[in-house]
Amino acid sequence: MKCGASDCQVHSTAKLAIIDDGTKRFVLCPEHQIEYALALIDERRITSFASQLEEHECEICCSPANIYADDVELYLCRRHLNKLIRHHLNPTEYTILRQNHSEFQLLVGDLYSTGGYALQPIYESGQTG
Ligand SMILES: [Zn+2]
Ligand SMILES: [Zn+2]
């Protein structure tokens, strides 16, 4: 596997995640996940495959879900997927996901405070904080 963004050479499996939006399935590195979440990347420039997504509900809001998978699989709607990638979940959303996926890498470390407050959200400018 390698990041599906053209010109990107990241192929370290530890960093890559599969995203399946129900239309197509693709692999992205963390940097390109953020560009995807911020709609900064032209999705036509991402190498993609046929979707293998079955019908699921978002784990947070029960809307139709996309899949995000690295070591673990999460089912999230596009809005909550974007918030996850941007480290920008609110405490309620964080708590729900943390209960389901206690070791998930986008929920651990110093991205959130103990109460689930986002400490390093990523905004459109690409800045954190
Ligand atoms: Zn990439
Ligand atoms: Zn949702």
Give a structural overview.
The chain is of the alpha+beta class. The protein has a domain at 17-86. The protein is built from 3 helices and 5 strands; from the N terminus they run ββαβββαα. The protein has helices spanning 30-37, 78-85, 91-100, and strands spanning 17-20, 24-28, 48-50, 66-69, 73-76. A 5-stranded antiparallel beta sheet has the order 3-2-1-4-5. The radius of gyration is 14 Å and the shape is globular. The termini are far apart. The model has no long low-confidence stretch (mean pLDDT 93). Residues 3, 5, 8, 10, 28-29, 31-32 line the site of one zinc ion.
| Multimerization status | single chain
Largest β-sheet summary: 5 strands, antiparallel
How does the overall form come out from the CA principal axes? globular
* Arithmetic mean pLDDT: 93
SSE string, helices as H and strands as E: EEHEEEHH
What is the number of strand segments? 5
Small molecules bound: zinc ion
**How many angstroms does the end-to-end distance come to?**
32 Å
Instruction: Tell me the strand percentage band.
Output: 15-25%
Helix content: 10-25%
